Amino acid sequence: MSVQKQEQELRVLVADKDSYARLILQDILSAEAGVQVVGLAATGDELLLLQKQRKADVVLLDFDLPHNRQLLTLKRLFSEQPAPVLLLVMQEQLSLEMMQQALELGVYGIVLKPGKGHYINYRSVAAEVLRKIYAVRESEQWDGERRLMLLQEVMQELPDKPRPRKRGSHLAADTIIVIGASTGGTQAVESIITRLSPDLNATVLVALHLPQSFTRTYAQRLQELTSLKVQEGREGLTLKRSCVIVAPGGRNMVVRSVMGDKANLRVSFSDEETATYDLPSVDLLMKTVGESVVPHMVGVILTGMGKDGTVGASYIQRRGGLMVAQDEESSTIFGMAKSAIESGYIDRVLPLAEIPHFLNRFVAGQHQVSATDSVA
């Protein structure tokens, strides 16, 4: 198995109640020259003791670890021996609240368990586990003290009470904003959407790397926080003003013209393969927006590991659209944004707190902010 080697070995502590799972995960990790397994834990108490003794760089932790009810082990780890955590979890255990709480407690990535039972086939997700283990280097959580400081800064003022939706929200938009994110993206997108103008003359399309059936709950949560109309994407949905459309988890949402009319865009879905296997694909959504004839378009790449969005950014910039990336300091993981910035397809690099205000000004000014201006 080939994974890019790092100069410094990553010290990993594996915590799983099942002895078979611990051995398989240890075998997968130990096969990598850049990874050193420094301990195996079967319970939360063992995990805390080992982490205190061996100071692992990453903890690979099973959600079903004994004594982790209501994320108790994560809470203890965070308060006593802070360390970045990659969480192994079954899809049916996921909820929006759990993911957000887990992120606050040190989880920087999640791997869905490939099945149930005693003999889970972890080798089928070995490449994903290794990729996400290495991704901790892109995360601010790599520095435990830095992470504690950042979490203290996370609390932000609640947005003003949503105002009534303005007339005209049923009309087609002449501006499309595409937002793409992965790890840490749910909170980042919330921070942006809650601060967008309630009479925004644009359609906002959101692609988050979330599991199937999870995005509907997320869209409902967003709707509680904004007066913009929030919907989960479905076939044939029209792109209207003051509307936020969240791509369903596990599917590649795109935009297509109706009856050959490129100005009449609707939501559709595609089975086209992309360079990254993450779903929904940010690249594919941005590509189809860039190939449309909508007068104004803005792409936003937020926190997340990997390179999804870099190819899509090229299509939007090629059409004269504007590309914005979240800066490293405010990102949970500076991977997707970093890749797009280094590719040269980004026009603005902004802290998360400044992105919604920038979008409001852009839409209200109808392109007064030039895409040819230099990167901040």
TrEMBL record:
SUPFAM superfamilies: CheY-like, Methylesterase CheB, C-terminal domain. It catalyses: [protein]-L-glutamate 5-O-methyl ester + H2O = L-glutamyl-[protein] + methanol + H(+). The keyword Phosphoprotein applies. PROSITE patterns: CHEB (PS50122), RESPONSE_REGULATORY (PS50110). It comes from Pontibacter saemangeumensis. This is protein-glutamate methylesterase. The active site is at residues 182, 209, 308. Keywords: Chemotaxis, Hydrolase, Phosphoprotein. It comes from the Bacteria. The keyword Methyltransferase does not apply. SMART domains: REC (SM00448). Residues 11-128 form the Response regulatory domain. Residues 170-366 form the CheB-type methylesterase domain. PANTHER family: PROTEIN-GLUTAMATE METHYLESTERASE/PROTEIN-GLUTAMINE GLUTAMINASE, PROTEIN-GLUTAMATE METHYLESTERASE_PROTEIN-GLUTAMINE GLUTAMINASE 1. Pfam families: CheB_methylest, Response_reg. The modification 4-aspartylphosphate is found at residue 62. Its EC number is 3.1.1.61. It is an enzyme of class 3 (hydrolase). Transmembrane segments: none annotated.
